[in-house]
Amino acid sequence: VKDGRDTYEKHEVQATVIEPKLKVEGTGAIEYVKTWGIQGRSEVWVGEQSGKTQDRGEVVPATDCVVECASVAPKGNEKYVALTFDEGPSGATKQILQVLKEKGVTATFFLSGDAAEASPATAKAIVDAGCEVGSNSYSDESLKGKDRDAVREQVSKGTEAIKSATGTSTMLLRAPYAAFDEQNWIDAMDLVSAVVSWNIDSGDWLLNGADEQVSTVLDSVTPGNIVLLTDNDECAEQTLEALPQIIDGLIADGYKIVTLSDLVKTDTSLSKKLTSLTKVTMPKNAVFPQLAEDDDTTD
Question: Do 51 and 95 share a structural domain?
Fold first, then answer.
């Protein structure tokens, strides 16, 4: 008597979807989706006659979603810097544009959707002046802690209002207070091409005086930096006093002042990954990831 040979038994496949997780890698002022999340699958086979089960394990591994953070590193460490303005348009915007024009430089304005709705002509003047626009969300409210629908509404309404006012599409976001966490990414990654904070906070919102603002920027700047300035009525007087001095100081130190998009182009590696700041393409087979579980292990 010998053991019988193995035979292939008809079986039922019990498949389980493996959801991708969200991973955030690196540090820096610019965040973007490097790898989209794709579901995986595990299988258990159950024999139709024998009832025996075989765990086939992870037959298709999940691809985790990776959000990468980076700062701009200009090729050859050339002296490029981007001036960026939040919260506009305001009553001071046209004066800011005049200063930029007189100095022969351009900047990037992260507009609040509600402000763009209130002053569409001023918002359009920014684009007409050759400057770049991004979104500062719809209203000046932190996105952290809001539910998915509220986050998506704030982001979508902001971009729609800016497009309506300026005729320009943008999916470049600076979240209010630079507050955009992992859950926000999970909720709205198909609505933003990149989330941008800054390398240097001019501190103008502290209203400590133009001299303090100027020294904060000029004493801290390094190639590839993104500088935060505020375009609102409260900061207007100080900003208009400090801005010409900041521009003159940067130029005297050999810096070229460019828009954020042009700044990114100076970084060969980063520009290849950030192919567009005006649209985002979520692959058809991609899904929204889940938060990675905290590692609760202890020594």
Answer: no
Same-domain check for residues 185 and 97: yes
Residue 78 token pair = 């050339």
Q: b or e along 61-85 (b: 16 or more beta carbons within 10 Å of the residue's beta carbon)?
A: ebbbbbbbbbbbbbeeeebbbbbbb
pLDDT, one tens digit per residue, over 197-218 is 999 999 999 999 999 999 999 9
Tell me the two tokens of residue 90.
Answer: 């305001």
C-beta separation of 67 from 22 below 8 A = yes
Specify whether the CB–CB gap between 62 and 39 falls below 8 A.
yes
Q: Using one digit for the tens of pLDDT, what is the confidence trace for 170-192? A: 999 999 999 999 999 999 999 99
CATH of the domain at 32: 2.20.230.10
> Does an H or E element contain 227, and which?
strand 225-230
CA separation for the pair 78, 87 (Å, rounded): 30
Please give the Cα distance from 189 to 114 (Å, whole number).
Answer: 22
The domain in which residue 24 lies consists of 11-69
